Amino acid sequence: MKVAVITPYYKESEAVLRECHDSVLAQTVACDHFMIADGFPNPAVDGWAVEHITLPMSHRDVGNTPRVIGALSAFSAGYDAVSFLDADNWYKPDHVANMLALQRRTGAVVCTAGRSMHRPDGSFMFIDEKNDGRTHVDSNCYFLVRPAMSVMLAWATMPKELSPISDTVYLQSIRRARLSHAHDPHISVCYRSTWASDFERIGEVPPPDAKVLAFTDQPYDWLKSLSWSERRRIRRELGWPPGLAGKIARRLRAIGTRVAERVFGSQPAKRVEGTPQHRPA
């Protein structure tokens, strides 16, 4: 399977971009790196072993547009799968190999991985239990094969106002499209956190420029300000926010998970959800 790793970048330093790229080069299976400059191309990248796509302006949507453009470009160039990696994060060497193995074993259109949280200097903070494939999936943890292109086209229409919660929109649109999904909790994605809540969780003082959760509240406030017809159009295009049936299904999944944990203890290491008709032959 021919795999492309898609990295949108903005104004990150060359050192940060290099660390990201080196983690792709270090993968134990062959893959190619697509780096998409969101309005601010770094000349150093031109000399690296990457497909360098430069966009003429910044889209200011937390990487959503360059991420989608890079993925669709890779699929149009004949790649079978794409994996996302933001410029300030990095993979462990077995990430792509694990995702390939999971996809081959399950046939899932969407595969996701576990992640660990790190300080801006790269030092380890904690394992992110929330990134469990049910409650949340960070964009850096996605590995998608060709049938997922339909939802990517929907992501391209995402209003900028929703970009702070693009991860939530991605996961809900995948569920709405009934794409099969398999999750491997093995930690292979390293996420550089700048969220105040992550530092507070481990009893540390957040950096002065740390993001606060109010940042992710803004999209919901914006959505509430829209008319019913505008909200309905967004739901039709993105599959988000979920309607009443989706909310009920989500609540039932949460109840089922809690019951399973009480009866059987820890969750199974692997799981697949979705419908067989969306799985590749």
Helix count from the secondary structure assignment: 9
* CATH fold topology: Spore Coat Polysaccharide Biosynthesis Protein SpsA, Chain A
Order of helices and strands: EHEEHEEHEEEHHEHHHHE
Distance between the termini: 13 Å
Residue runs with pLDDT of under 50 for 5 or more positions: 266-281
Helical fraction: 25-40%
The tally of strands reads 10
Plain-language structure description:
This protein is of the alpha/beta class. It has helices spanning about 15-25, 65-75, 95-105, 150-155, 165-175, 195-200, 215-225, 230-240, 245-265, and strands spanning about 5-10, 30-40, 50-55, 80-85, 90, 110-120, 125, 140-145, 180-190, 270-275. The chain has one domain: Spore Coat Polysaccharide Biosynthesis Protein SpsA, Chain A (Alpha-Beta Complex), CATH 3.90.550. The chain has nine helices and ten strands. Strands 1, 2, 3, 4, 5, 6, 7, 8, 9 and 10 form a ten-stranded mixed β-sheet that branches. Helix 2 (about 65-75) runs antiparallel to helix 4. The chain is globular, with a radius of gyration of 18 Å. The two termini are about 15 Å apart.
Keywords:
globular; alpha/beta; 281 residues
Topology:
Elements: E1 3-9, H1 14-25, E2 32-38, E3 50-55, H2 64-76, E4 81-84, E5 90-91, H3 95-106, E6 110-118, E7 124-127, E8 142-145, H4 149-155, H5 166-176, E9 181-192, H6 196-201, H7 214-224, H8 228-238, H9 244-264, E10 271-273
Parallel strand pairs: 1-2, 1-4, 2-3, 6-9
Antiparallel strand pairs: 4-8, 5-9, 6-7, 6-8, 9-10
